[in-house]
Design brief:
mainly alpha; 48% helix; globular
Length: 89
Amino acid sequence: MAFWEYRERRWVAGSIPLPKPENDNWPVKAPWQTPPEVLQMIRRWKEEMRQELIADFALRSCPEHRHRWDLMHAMEKAALWVHYRVRKE
């Protein structure tokens, strides 16, 4: 059997509400911002977080700091992909 024959079909009817994502899929940038401004803002925030980490190394084990760092990294990857079609690992 071919690969596509294993897939199940999913029907979407207008009366069935689709699941809503938890984060509401907020946009990475405001409408008035240019892509370079967005990347500059994100990289400035990441640099501030790096400086905080240098000042207090205990933040490395802080889950809130790690979560913020992951969000900044994801925002940077999304902005690069959406505006420049560049994938950053």
